[in-house]
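INFO  loader      accepted 1 record
INFO  loader      residues=475
INFO  predictor   begin
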Amino acid sequence: MSVRQRKLRTTENEEEIDNELASRQKKTASQPGRKYFTVMMVLGVLFLGYIAIANDLKPIRIGSKAIDTLAFSFNLQKPFYVVVIDAGSTGSRVLAFSFHESILNGNLILDDELFSEIKPGLSSFADTPRDAANSLTTLLNKAKTVIPQSEWPRTLLTMKATAGLRLLPEHKANNILEECRKLFQTSGFQVAKNSISIMEGTDEGIFSWFTVNFLLDRFNSLSSQTTVAALDLGGGSTQVTFQPDSVQAKKLEKHVYSINVFNHNMSLYTHSYLGMGLMAARKAILTYNVNTENTDSKLPIEIHSECINPIVSTEWSYGGRNYIVKGPINGTYKLVKTQNFAGGDENKPVVRFSECLKIIEKYVSTLTEKPIGLKDHEIYAFSYYFERATEVALIDPFLGGVVQLSAFLKQATETCDYPNTDQPFMCLDLTFIYILLKDGFGLEPNTKLYLYKKINGHELSWALGAAFNVLQNGL
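INFO  predictor   done
INFO  writer      dumping tokens
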């Protein structure tokens, strides 16, 4: 079995904190005295709370989080920061996290984060690597607005590129990374040689899973019944990560890893499916039976697809190539009832859903090593899963929500019957998501999907898991 140690843990006492992390948090000799004062003050507050309750006054709940919050509000603990650049295939994002250390057990407490995004992704600058790096300047400047300048030299900065750069020729990807290193060296933040890299799909899955379960506070017992599965649908790849039981672990052992979370060892299944990201799949489905190999890369490629409405003609770019996407040459029309007072039928152009479905099913059938047992877990799905669900009103765009997988199929069939030139790819995208989850990942039509962008105000992405990893293991 391939085993890889991943340390995503916080320290439980000061002796375990290494010198670099200690200096980052600016510990001083006077801090023990401050902590003693804080504890005494908190005990006093608890005593007052006891008196209030004993005398039938308004009840007061003060737990460990409240104690930490109280200490932090008295400025007895200085915050420290981590900046993570998520260089995705369709865009780049910056997440600037602020943490402090719990006075009770030394655990890292997440206080706040900044999130900002720009498009396109770095892979769009495959032939102009300096422009790729320069595109990140806006994101670095955003991070500086929430981090005091005095803290910049102690703030760790890391950038992880995902499927977009994985899919580029190696020399082009390396040229982009080198220009980004040059830019980061002048940023004022703390940068190490290996802080800028292409992230393995395994890490992407593990970090995403950690983020979701950390924000849901599911690390109390660390059992497979307590933690949730994380499904991240990116542009170039998709990750499936969950904690298998002993039976599932044996069947999935090729992709089961040993990790350490908060000083607990556990087995975790994670698999990154390169090419099954939404944009990579869209490109493969659109160009089904179309030869694009010998065409001039500077000229747009005209393609006709069964998954596009007959009246659509739109431009689309992916992987450094430009396309003019149209519906099939001999389109299909369908009589539908009109909604006006005159009544009657109207001949509307529609996608031949059955033909589109065959193409998508054939593409998804190339997926091997399926995540056996995924359907037995509580499933949180985010990124493009969330975005497409909000765009067709399956869930609230601000609150998120829970839907059954069958809702994607229902919405897909309805969308494919509607000639919407504002969302020309929606029929294809929804159908692909449904087939990927049902045929590719073995989910049932009635499987519940928890679709969210944020939990408790924090973004669902791999970046938070990466930030914890950086703090504990260094850059």
